[in-house]
Amino acid sequence: MFDKIKSMHFPNDVYIGHDAIYNINEVIEKNLRSGTVLIITGNTTYEVAAKKVIDLINNIDYKVIKVENSTMDTLNIIKNQVKKYRIGLTIGIGGGSKIDLAKKIAYDLNVPFISVPTAPSHDGIASPRASIYDGKSFLSIEASMPSAIIADTSIMLKAPFRFAASGASDVIANITSVMDWKLANRIKGEEFSSTSSVISEYASKELIENANVIQPGLEDSIWLIMKGILASGTAMAIAGTSRPASGSEHLFAHALEILGKGTAMHGEQVAMGSLVSMYFHGDDWKMLYNVYKKIGVSTKASDYGINKNIAIKALSIAHRLRPERYTILGETDLSDNVSEKALRITKVI
Ligand SMILES: [Zn+2]
After folding, report:
1. Which CATH number is 161-345's, of 1.10.10.10, 1.10.3110.10, 1.20.1090.10, 2.60.40.420?
2. Residue 292 — pLDDT band, cuts 50, 70, 90?
3. Dist CA 240 CA 180 (whole Å)
4. What is the Å distance from ligand 1's center to 122 Cα?
5. pTM of this prediction?
6. What is the pLDDT of residues 147-180, one digit of tens each?
7. Cα-to-centroid distance, 85 and ligand 1 (Å)
8. How far is the CA of 97 from the centre of ligand 1 (A)?
9. Residue 123 alpha carbon to ligand 1 centre in Å
10. Whose CA is closest to 92, among 148, 132, 133, 170?
């Protein structure tokens, strides 16, 4: 008897490209039933994009809150601050943390959320998960899928190129996430979606094949990376989990978050993890290594001030971070020797 049932949540409207921001009014009007619009942004991102959004919106009550980091404390402070308002919609305008907070608040208040990224720095821009610091490490928690995404490439072009390269790496690393997912399907019988995995792999391959186009100062690069991020988001929406875009390479990144990530951004941590993952899968890690090199992302731990022992430990214990997520790293700690060898061969240490 067929008794399968599944729910999928997608953004209703996606505007991507040059001057996409000019669609903000229309998007707000479509998503706001009543009440006040809560805009979460930062000091820099206020100047870069939020000011523009505020100029463009008319006849709508709004409240702007500027934050710096995405932490549980900040989340609670904002919730207290907005208690006296009847919030009908949240807009996150920023790189990562502002979007994460706006997404989580929307989820808690059960109102729509609009994602306005100012840098294509990771795939959280278009996903239903929020990364929030709880005092010890960043937790990936359930939040709202954006009702709309406004990805203005002319705004994102102004962010440092490192953000874009890091976002590209996050998408490129989908290649090992999907390998892990297939493995978990074979070994653990985990539910697998071929539609989702194909989209996720497509996003990765598109960036791998066009790595030479990903360069500073090119709006085409931002477009390409954003397209990949949106495809990743779609893959996650179809799967109903982050599985198609988060495997062993992300477990390694999460372990670094706890043990000491140095100065490495999310996508850079994931890039290092994906090399080792690819090596463990017995696949072509050198191809990946060269792609990261081409887009200017270092996969050397010491370049981020991460010492060798931390990298080894992170790889050994990475599997513990999400025990329910089976990957090539298995279910027991890797020996230091095995970790060290894999990190050395892939030139991470
Ligand atoms: Zn990621």
Report:
1. 1.20.1090.10
2. very high
3. 17
4. 6
5. 0.94
6. 999 999 999 999 999 999 999 999 999 999 999 9
7. 33
8. 13
9. 6
10. 148
